[in-house]
Specification:
It comes from Pseudooceanicola atlanticus. There is one protein chain. The protein is of the alpha+beta class. Among the domains are: about 90 residues, OB fold (Dihydrolipoamide Acetyltransferase, E2P) (Beta Barrel), CATH 2.40.50; about 190 residues, 2-Layer Sandwich (BirA Bifunctional Protein, domain 2); about 110 residues, GAD-like domain (Gyrase A, domain 2, 2-Layer Sandwich), CATH 3.30.1360.30. It contains 16 helices and 24 strands. An eight-stranded mixed sheet has the order 6-9-10-24-23-22-19-12, with helices on both faces. A five-stranded mixed β-barrel has the order 1-2-3-5-4. A hairpin with a 2-residue loop joins β1 and β2. α4 runs antiparallel to α6 and α4 crosses α15. It starts with 19 loop residues before the first strand and ends in a 9-residue tail after the last helix.
């Protein structure tokens, strides 16, 4: 017999009754039923009930074991009585009577309990992650992640892509986040960088004649943490294709992503029609460039109904250039209680409040209620109702000003309204391509023009488009949104040096600086670069959605905490004096 096990803890069933077996695993739970000890023995695959009574030659040893001890047992498989069968587990028809036991690893008093669903502070869970990962939900999440990655790889190979590995140590590149720098020992005073993405290398692969590339790529960004983003590193499905237009990329990646969600989505509906929505339309209707289309609410501009109206706040606001009033329809939200709750939500978001109108049945007809209705009068109120397609029992909420100041709050309000009123279909994955992103944005304080998205994208209209107002230039850039999250970001690349120099010039980068920062790529583009494009899909975020988790750390094996610290391994740590000397570095103490 094998030194540790003849079967896993998920393999035994009624056909094994009478067999002598050997199992190894962790003590999940111990129960003492009148001198008979029952142990749920757990390994990665499942659970088997083993038992011991005073007739066992090792009863005294079994009495000593405690939760999470790692043990090996030898025993005889017995059938459970019919009334004691547990149909919830594969081994529920049998139990194993212990004849011999060996303790493979003792466990100290546990800082967190593996059995059950107790909640623990995140700091505790991350400090003792190896215990946290023993929990059933975490084992399930990490197995799901592994299976998703394996399926992605197969689907990409089936689509005639090949996987290539790009460097982990490279040059610093401005791609929207801070680099992690790595000091060079051989070149004192100079630094490598960990790649924010394989962006330049995958483009260089296209110049090198590799037609279809993909990689499950690690990416490193020194970012502030969020629930849906890791603060240090993450993995993405990175791909690039030559001789393609934007639609070709969409047609290639949709079957891969759609297939993953159909395979691992737990029976939820997966949309097969993926609309293409412009960035401007998404901002207007949904208040975000990653809309949740499970929520049917679409915002509308209603400025004309408030211009010159009796509601002075909005009327005066509209006299200022660049302002507008938007309405958020709220079907079935027509109660003062709900409207007051949403008004309080807006105040928590930092706004003075959120105007509202709701419509109720007065027996002899419909009445519009709320402060706004009284101020603007029945004619304007009725025009708003008809524009929004609302009726008795419905409501509408209103925000005004410059869109950039209130769009984010409006988008979050739309999300809350959809969930609270039960309008959002929770049993669905809804996808949308967001297209026509602006290439540039202006700093509100300085007016300085900079890239708003990927700097390597091809501007729509090519070189001619860059001769006019930079803020009107659109790029061949696109994101894929799903259920309120950005899953994919990509672009058709700028492969022509003259267009690249002009594009960077508008953002304040001269040709010399572009050659210095991106010399390898610029030089390569002078030797017959093909048109090419691609995208990258966030593996962690995809698995987070499939696992129905709200925090990305629930699907990453060893994540950092909110302060980008690894509490388990003690990172970041202070270097030794010898290490600093070897690297010709000195640490300046912080005041």
């Amino acid at each position: 017999m094998h030194a540790y096990r003849s079967h896993t803890c998920a393999q035994l069933n009624a056909s094994n009754v009478g067999d002598t077996v050997r199992l190894s695993g962790w003590v999940h739970r111990i129960r003492d039923h009148g001198g008979v000890l029952f142990i749920d023995l757990r390994d990665h695959y499942g659970m088997t009930q083993v038992l011991c009574d005073p007739d066992s030659p090792v009863f005294n040893e079994v009495e000593k074991v405690r939760s999470e001890w790692c043990i090996r047992i030898d025993g005889n498989v017995k059938a459970r009585a019919p009334e004691l069968v547990n149909p919830k587990i594969p081994t529920g028809e049998i139990e194993v009577f212990i004849r011999d036991i060996e303790v493979l690893g003792h466990a100290k008093e546990l800082p967190l309990i593996v059995f059950g669903d107790q909640e623990y502070p995140e700091e505790t869970r991350l400090r003792y992650r190896y215990l946290d990962l023993r929990r059933e939900a975490m084992q399930r999440n990490m197995t799901l992640r592994s299976d998703v990655v394996a399926s992605i790889r197969k689907r990409m190979w089936d689509a005639e892509f090949r996987e290539y590995q790009t460097p982990i140590i490279t040059a610093s590149s401005p791609e929207g986040a801070r680099d992690f720098l790595v000091p060079s020992r051989l070149h004192p005073g100079k630094f490598y960088a960990l790649p924010q993405a394989p962006q330049q290398f995958k483009q260089l692969l296209m110049v090198s004649g590799f037609d279809k590339y993909f990689q499950i790529a690690p990416c490193f960004r020194d970012e502030d943490p969020r629930a849906d983003r890791s603060p240090t590193d993450f993995y993405q499905l990175d791909l690039e294709m030559s001789f393609v237009e934007q639609q070709d990329v969409f047609d290639t990646i949709q079957p891969v992503v759609q297939g993953i969600f159909e395979e691992f989505g737990g029976g939820k509906t997966v949309d097969t029609e993926w609309p293409q929505i412009s960035y401007a339309e998404a901002a207007l209707k949904y208040g975000t460039d990653k809309p949740d289309l499970r929520n049917p609410i679409e915002m509308q501009v209603v400025s004309e109904h408030f211009a010159g109206s009796g509601f002075a706040i909005f009327a005066k606001l509209l006299e200022q250039e660049g302002t507008e009033i938007r309405a958020i329809p709220a079907p079935t939200g027509g109660s003062r209680k709900f409207c007051d709750r949403m008004n309080a939500f807006a105040q928590k978001e930092g706004l003075p409040g959120m105007g509202y109108i709701f419509w109720r049945d007065q027996g002899d007809g419909m009445e519009a209620a709320g402060p706004l209705a009284k101020n603007i009068g029945p004619e304007r109120t009725e025009a708003i109702r008809q524009q929004l397609g609302l009726g008795v029992g419905d409501a509408a909420f209103f925000l005004g000003g410059k869109p950039s100041a209130f769009e984010g709050v409006a988008g979050r309000a739309r999300t809350v309204i959809g969930k609270e009123l039960g309008l959002t279909d929770e049993n669905r994955f809804a996808f949308a391509w967001i297209v026509d992103f602006p290439m540039y944005e202006a700093d509100e304080e300085t007016g300085k023009i900079d890239f708003s998205h990927n700097p390597f994208s091809m501007p729509q209209g090519g070189l001619e488009a860059l001769e006019g107002d930079p803020l009107k230039v659109l790029g061949y850039q696109y994101d894929l949104a799903c259920n309120g999250y950005e899953l994919i970001s990509g672009a058709i690349r700028n492969h022509k040096p003259e267009i690249m120099f002009k594009a960077f010039e508008l953002a304040g980068y001269g040709e010399d600086e572009v050659r210095k920062r991106f010399g390898g790529m610029v030089n390569a583009f002078q030797y017959g670069a093909p048109p090419h494009g691609g995208c990258a899909a966030g593996i962690d975020r995809i698995v987070m959605l499939l696992a129905e988790e709200e925090n990305i750390r629930e699907v990453i094996l060893f994540p950092m905490n909110q302060r980008a610290e690894d509490l388990m391994m003690g990172a970041p740590s202070e270097p030794t004096s010898d290490q600093l000397m070897e690297l010709s570095l000195r640490v300046i103490p912080q005041e």
